Amino acid sequence: DVQLVESGGDSAEAGGSRRLSCVVSGNTNTGYCMAWFRQAPGNNRAGLALINIVTGRTFYTDSVRGRFTISHDNAKNTLYLQMNNLKPDDASMYYCAAYRHESWDPPCTILAARYTSWGQGTQVTVS
């Protein structure tokens, strides 16, 4: 397993941009699915985007597709979420997550229950 620490959350203007980072430590010498989730008070934890860090395959949910971009820098062991054209509805606590993925496993999933490592969250507010 790996340990995850998010950063980059803060206030942002509607229509603006912000980049979240998630530093990965631990056993990084293997394949992982990594993803970004968000959870506002009273809501379920919602998946936003995922990446298979070996193949580079990505997936986005409808609410963020075309606005957010997930990426992973293998050299820096860091996951990113570039958020553009922010909307007030994007205000939430954002979490990064990961689970180990083998080549024979089903494709990475955006379902929260599958993820085994979680960051502590970083708060994003949007005016």
Distance N terminus to C terminus? 37 Å
- Overall 3D shape: globular
Low-confidence blocks of residues: none
The fraction of residues assigned to DSSP E strands is over 45%
The helix-strand sequence is: EEEEEEEEEEE
Number of strands: 11
Instruction: Using the CA coordinates, give the radius of gyration.
Output: 14 Å
Q: How helical, in percent, are the residues?
A: under 10%
SS-derived structural category: mainly beta
Could you give a short account of the major beta sheet? 7 strands, mixed
Tell me, rounded to a whole number, the average pLDDT.
Answer: 95
By oligomeric state, this entry counts as single chain
Helix count from the secondary structure assignment:
0
